Every structure is written in structure tokens, then in C-alpha cells.
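In response to a reviewer's request, we include the raw inputs and outputs for one of the modeled complexes. The two entities were modeled together in a single run.
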Amino acid sequence: MKNRLASLDRVLLMGPGPSPVADNVYAAMATPMVGHMDPDFIALMDTIKEQLRTVFQTKNTVTMPMSGTGSAGMETAFVNMVERGDSVLILQNGVFGKRMIDVATRLGADVTELGFEWGTPVIPDKVAEALAAKKYDLVAIVHAETSTGVANPVEAVGRLVKEHGALYLVDCVTSLGGMEVALDRWGADICYSGTQKCLSCPPGLSPVSFSNAAIERLKRRKAKVPNWYLDLGMLTSYWEGHKRIYHHTAPISMNYALYQALANLLEEGLPNAYARHKAMHERLLAGLGELGFKPFVDASCRLPMLNLVTCPAGVDEAKLRERLRMEHHIEIGGGLGALAGKVLRIGVMGEGARPEPVDRLIKAMAACVR
Amino acid sequence: MKNRLASLDRVLLMGPGPSPVADNVYAAMATPMVGHMDPDFIALMDTIKEQLRTVFQTKNTVTMPMSGTGSAGMETAFVNMVERGDSVLILQNGVFGKRMIDVATRLGADVTELGFEWGTPVIPDKVAEALAAKKYDLVAIVHAETSTGVANPVEAVGRLVKEHGALYLVDCVTSLGGMEVALDRWGADICYSGTQKCLSCPPGLSPVSFSNAAIERLKRRKAKVPNWYLDLGMLTSYWEGHKRIYHHTAPISMNYALYQALANLLEEGLPNAYARHKAMHERLLAGLGELGFKPFVDASCRLPMLNLVTCPAGVDEAKLRERLRMEHHIEIGGGLGALAGKVLRIGVMGEGARPEPVDRLIKAMAACVR
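The model returned the following C-alpha cells for the whole complex.
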């Protein structure tokens, strides 16, 4: 029988995720499995929780990976924290803010959308006005908006949210590991991320963290969480405590990979990893600038790990991506939503945020546009 | 830094799952990734769908793996098919039937439970009575009840359900690949499985299949599916058709593993795999019978891949499991729910359903009880 995997192209992943994976993370995934209730696995779960607390910069007890990709983390956050009729303010300046609105609305929340122009950040003064005008149970924001390349001012917004006593939810899917994430300092109560961005781990898990205030909210629910698979109370009975209670069969191999990816990151040190992402972001923009590509986002709020650029005149973005993939075996991303066809999205994430892959990409793009 | 994975024990997995994984499946998981929108990955998705249709014995177009473990498949089935107030009949004779009740109730369904003694099968005549007494939108059953080791008469029940015009949901988590699953012949409209049982693939995905009637029901929904992550309509836009629409970042590496595990199974041939599970089940019970272990389930409805046995007098089941794990590096399972402390649950699943692991287990159990 023909083996389809043997003929897969070997692609350098420089899009908005998944990002390149280190050899020792691939090897970790291929480690022979133990059971999901095995004492060795339970000990590893405890290590992963500690690693995650370090990268999230939090003391939150309830910090663990959910058994689904980043969007499962978003679902977990809303389905556990929101009940029908709860008032939710969503600060929207991209596809992932829009997705939050869809998720929360499906759950029957009373959603208010506060929108900002795509490619620009959330403006704290506007948030303050909205918070003064209505009482909200929860305020949600995306730290690193992967669809626009914008970093939102999550710390400033957090201060406002805390003044008004709402729960504060921050999407850190793309930021975690590539720029500072500091849940406790920000006052973030609910956070989720993904493994396939700056953690450089294959997609499959979504690390989440919930503050004590969030857990208190969970305990005050009137109705059971309308999602058995993502029920946080049951999940903590599996992930916490002396005697673990079986919930679902955790994806063992993905947890091995996450452990190794986090070990790699912590061995490098978080400040070093942040600095590396910033340096590679600058290297990328400098190289692409010489080719006539222009940053889409103002320098004041550019993300380091996800770069939106517009093409020089005469360059078709879709054809460029096609040539990069087919001739140079490099993946980059196109625009999402309203930005489809207008921008390129280039990731320098995790193992992709190193000189060799960045230079290879610049060289390939030069070959395509010259 | 100490590498925790290097010191993990190497365990023979003979419990209720996860099951042993073939070397080429581990290798598949470590294959360098392409992106989730990459043409190579989309071609592989098409292959996986075809493979799944073969093992499910169905022509259902909507047949694909969900990005979560088996319980995410159960959640997917109910959250897409059931709306608040829908009448649902759940045939319950174990933990996974109970779980269905919990899942459906959380979603606001009008749930009727028809219970049967644990360790015995669902009785079609009782189902016929229930169907005559009330009109149901959906009837749900577990094919292979992993908590009791019982095979339910899904084909006979299917005929009754079809006569009454309800949708028919069958949980095939543990049966798929280890005994015949024939969705189209059974008249099953909704089915989900897991990868970590008889497919011998690490946990992380849940193959599902939906009939045309199920998809028609989805289209008739009044409200959006209250679960963005598991929304079947959006997922089919990613998994089907000429132009794929991004939904979430699929767990690429898990799909590589599933592809390889399904390729292994189809290369062996489904009838051969079923016969192998049955032969290893008999070999296990014969060996354990000599040691004084007795089957918990009547021979007429025993599952081949999941064997419940009671211990000989004087043997403590928890201590036996502990010794097997610590001294012999073999995992087997204990009882779940009402059967906790009363039975052992022994899997002969996938790669575990071969003479060498079965004999190793019997020998180790002999050493523990003699």
C-alpha cells in the first residue's frame, strides 16, 4: 500500500500557525504511551501545570491544557463562565474578536460588541466609556489579534475592567511564549492559548488558566455547564488533587509534546524568547522592506510574531503565496475576513523565529518578486 | 534539565484504552507537519474520510474525525442533533449510557432513560414498548459498553427505531475496528468513535459519521448549534468540498497517526481484524479461567475487545492491578461506576489483540495470584 505520509512535502511553516516544531518535540510525541490514569502520567500532568503557570505568569491553581485546539480553549472559557442572559462586552478588532462574539451569542449571553478598526488596537478610553454606560459580567479581549497583527493594550484595559468588578477574559493564543503574558499582573481571570504558535508544538491542546474569582463564578452557576466535554469542574477533578477522577481519555502523546515544548521554552528563558521574537520580527521587516513590502500595522502596536504586510505594486498576493509553497516549500498566510486578498500574514513563531528560517523566507520572497 | 519523558515507564496497555500503538503509527505522528490548509493536508483529509467510510461501513458523506477525544464525539453528536425540548430516548446499561444522559440533559433535551441491568444487554422488546408509548426525535445506544463489557443488539434496535421514524445514534467508541460496525446496514444516523481503542492510535481524535437524514435535521435547526468548536456545518465546510473554509487548526500530527492506523487496519482487512480480536478474547478468557478468574458477562453478549472478569476468592482487585503495573509494567482497568472494586476490565484491542501481549498478561497475572 502506498504510504501517503512518505510523500508529504517538507514545508517551512512561516504562516500564522502551525509553526515549525523542534526535533525533540517530534520525538516526545513518539514516546511510547502510558495510560491516562497512570501514576507516571499524573506526575507529568503536575509538571505541565507548573510549566504553564510559569509561562502564563500566574499562581492560578486551575491552569492546564484542554484536550482540543485553541478554539476549544475559547469555547471552554465562554461555556464555563457565561450563562444565558449574562452581560458580556467583547472588544473586537479582528476575526478572533468576531469569533468570541459568535461563541458567546450561541451560549445565550447578552453580548455587546465594541468594535475598533482592523489593523488598529483597542482604545482604553472607549472601553472606559462602555464600562461606565453599562454593568458587565465579563469583558473579553484578544491579546495578539492573529488576523490583523495588532497587539492590544491588555494591561491598561485590565485595570479598567477590575475597577468595574467584571471578570476579565484574555485570548493569548498567538502571544503566549512570544511576548510577555502576565496574567496575574494584568488582572486576567480567564485565559486560553494554543500550542501551535509560539510554543512550537503541534496543534491539539489549548492551555487555559482561571483565577479564583473565575472559579467562584463557576461555582455560582445556576445551570450545569452545557458542555460535558469542556466542563471545568469535572476537568479539574481529573487534573487536580490527590485522587484523580477519570473524565475523558486525555491525548497522552500531545501532552508529551507540550511538556517538551514548554521545557525547551523555559530552558531558553522567557525574556530571551521574547527578545528573540522581537529581533526576528525586525529582521523580517527590514528584509521585506528592501523588497517593497510595507507593514500594515503602525509600529506602536505591531505584534512581533505575526506580521501583516502589503505587497509592492504589481505583486499578486495569492500567486506569491502559491509560488512560495510550490517552488520554495514555504507556507505563509493570506488575509482573513475583511483583509482577504489585501495582505500577507507572516509568522515568526517559536522555532520559526530564528535567523535561518527568516532569511530563507526573505530570500525566497526576493526570488518571487524580482 | 532532567527530561521527564526519558524516565517514563514502558507499559503494556491492556486496559480499556488507550491500547498499544504500532511503531509505524508513532513514526507517523513524528512526521514533519504541513499546515492545516496545505494542499497536501487537504488531500490526506480526503483519504482519511474514505478510510473511515470503509471501517464504519457507510456511504455517509459527512464522515470525518473531530478534533477531540471520544467524548468530544459524543458531545458533537448530541449538540448538533438535539435542540432544547427535543425528545430523546437513551438506552442505558453502563457508564457511557449514563454519560449520554448527562450530555443530552445539559443541552436541554427532554430525556427518557430506559435502563437495563449492568452486565446485561439492551432488550429490543423493551425498546419496542418504549417506542410505542411515546414519540421520540432520537434514540441513542452504546454498541460496546466499555464499563460492563456488553455488546448491545444495535442492529435489532435499529430496525425498531427506523419503524418509528426517529434518528438513531450509536456510540462505537470501543467497537470500531475490533468487531463489525456497519452503519448503513444498521440504519444508524449518527455515530462517533475514538482512536485509542481498536484502531490502536493515540487518543486525540474522534471519528464521526452522519447520515443524510441527520444532516437534514441539522439544517432544520431553529437555533445555531450552541457549540462553535463542534459545529458540524462549519466543520464540513473545512472537511468537504472544492474550496475549504478555515474553521480551527486541525491537530495535524494526530491526523497523520490516524491515517497510518487506518491504513494498517485496512491492509489487514476488517474481517481478519475482527477474527483476531475474537481469537485473542478466547485465548485470554481460557488462560484466565485456569487461574480462577470468571467472566462477568454471559457468553451470548460478551465483547471481544473488552473483558470484565471477577477475581478468584482471596484476590484483591486493586492490589492485583497495582502489582501488574509496578512489577510487570502492564496496565489493566478496574471497574467503573457501580462496578468499581468488583471487576477487572481487560482490553485486547488493536495491537494488544495479539498472542504475545495476551500471553504476557496471562503469565503476569498467574505470577500475581499464585
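As requested, we also summarize the result in words. The mean pLDDT of chain B is 97. Chain B has 13 helices and 15 strands.
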